[in-house]
Amino acid sequence: IDVFLARSLLEKLYLFQYPIRPASMTYDDVTHLSAKIKPKQQKVELEMAIDTLNPNYCRSKGEQIALNVDGTCTDETSTYSSKLMDKQTFCSSQAASNVSRYAAAVYKKGELHLTPLHGILQLRPSFTYLDKADAKHREREAANEGGDSSQDEAEDDVKQITVRFSRPETEQARQRRVQSYEFLQKRQAEEHWVHLHYYGLKDSRSEHERQYLFSQGHGLAENTELIKSPSEYLMMLMPPSIEEENDKPMAPSNVLSMAQLKTLPLADQIKILMKNVKVMPFANLMSLLGSGTDSTAVLRCIQQVAMLVQGNWVVKSDVLYPKDTSSPHSGVPAEVLCRGRDFVMWKFTQDRWVVRKEVAAVTKLCPEDVKDFLEHMSVARINKGWEFMLPYDEDFVKKHPDIVQRQHMLWMGIQAKLEKVYNLLKEHLTPKKQEAQSAHPLLVSGEQRVSMAKAKVKQNYGQLEKEFQKQKAEMKSNDTSAKMDVSNIRIKEEPVSDEEPMDTSMYEGMNNGIVNGLHVEEDSTDLNGHLPGGCIDRVAQELKAFVSSTFKKQFVLTLSELKRLFNLHLASLPPGHTLFSGISDKMLQDMVLDTGCKQILVPFPPQTAASPDELKVYALWEAGDTYDQHRQVLLEIFSKNYRVRRNVIQNQLSQECGEDLNKQEVDRVLK
Description:
Elements: E1 2-5, E2 14-17, E3 32-38, E4 43-49, H1 59-70, E5 87-94, E6 103-108, E7 111-116, E8 119-125, H2 128-144, H3 150-157, H4 171-178, H5 181-190, E9 194-196, H6 204-210, H7 230-237, H8 242-246, H9 258-261, H10 266-277, E10 279-280, H11 282-289, H12 295-305, E11 306-309, E12 312-315, H13 317-320, H14 334-350, E13 353-354, H15 356-363, H16 367-377, E14 378-381, E15 385-388, H17 394-399, H18 401-422, H19 426-429, H20 446-477, E16 514-515, E17 518-519, H21 533-554, E18 556-558, H22 559-571, H23 585-594, E19 597-600, H24 612-615, E20 617-620, H25 628-638, H26 646-657, H27 663-670
Parallel strand pairs: 1-7, 2-8
Antiparallel strand pairs: 3-4, 3-9, 4-5, 5-8, 6-7, 10-12, 11-12, 13-15, 14-15, 16-17, 18-20, 19-20
């Protein structure tokens, strides 16, 4: 059932709840004699007629009530001019203080139209006529007792009175008076009644107003409130009660409830977890957040509150030491503490071991602060120093080379700042290389590294020569039409286009044996740095396979989204894969056009805030299914306007394709 939101009667529609009516009263058109309202208080009074000719009506009782209220005389001020209780007044009260979750619904021709209610009023009988009867009774008693002598009246005239002057009202007394029941009743009584005209159910004006219960525009643009996910829509219909939230017991500040944690936004969850744990592998973080959490969103959030150290995430210093705070040990401001802790984190990016005395000598902080820094991320070993508490996470480094490269650049910037602040010597800056699996530091000199590299090259030379010859043979046997002219590709060179190449390589220091993103054992380059011919073909084939499979799944992509998916694809590949040779934006766009896709020149508005890559739209022109023609018509429509109504699309598809498409088929093409 399609649901529409009607706005015409917004803030004007009230629901009246009448009491169970007696047999002598019917709520029809003729019974409503008058109506009036106080808009600010949402208070309504209705005067309704009683059927005095109904056999259930007690005539003697009605005459008695009229006599008690009006007496024997009949004038304009009389409540019951017919000397019978022939009408009754109903006064309203608010049934609910918050009516935002209630709406009036009208169902018509398979459509449900909702109009939000502005108020729900319960009508109850008003017995003010009894007060009037009591007033009449007191007047008659006063008249009967009015036989006093004139002497008594004279004595009353000279009666002594006492005059008192009121004190100046204090602010507290004024607030108590304003909040008192008598004052509120007086304020409510001061609001004037607004008289209303009642239109019957079958009146033409009522029928006209009733049409406003239907939504005037059926387009999605007019009903943006209904374009929500199921969970968001459910929260709008049934928001959590404020009273229930206030009743929840507060947990101690040092206790972290996972149930309460999962109610927070993803960024806050990650920040709280990292602030409590300090150091965590990415796999452990994903397991704490739950199975349905998007890893891409987690990677985006984790980089805001943590830094990558040896493949593990360590909480940032400014998260632990916010601005305007100080050390509990020495009173040092947070800015100095953050610099000292950043130095310790940076040292662990260079080596698995850190000496406490060295840190204290460089940072000039007290031993207690330095010990806190080290305990956050390392474990003390007797006669050895402090070792980083978690092993090197090689799996994360292989899967996310782009994140590793970005974090490496951040650490380079932090290192430059630390050099200026602490005047670091060369011995502090020189990293101590060691194997990831080794528990003890391994010192290797520069000459030893060169000799080891030469020996490795000689050892693999024969194998590389065989692979090169094999690749040459494969290049000759391949079909020349399937080749891609990428002979000018050079590793670590700028691309032909003006656009920057996508960052697909990981920095060298995190994984030994990788040269420019390629494993020496698996791939080879000639002495001039060019890729072999067979490798060029493999790059083109791999890139073409990725582009084809991606567009068969999604049909339409912007260049920005395609680059994001390509980076995710690279992260899933093993190190040394041919696609790590460096793919520029131009190569990616050319391959998209070669696989049967077309660029759709969508006329986006000039004031859009989208990036240039988000404005480049590519679409699969022929997918080989029954909807190729419909899809092409739809793409032509969007090449003329970036925003089109649904009925225009359906009419255009019917004209171009020569057949009437039903709603389900149009939905499938649009999706």
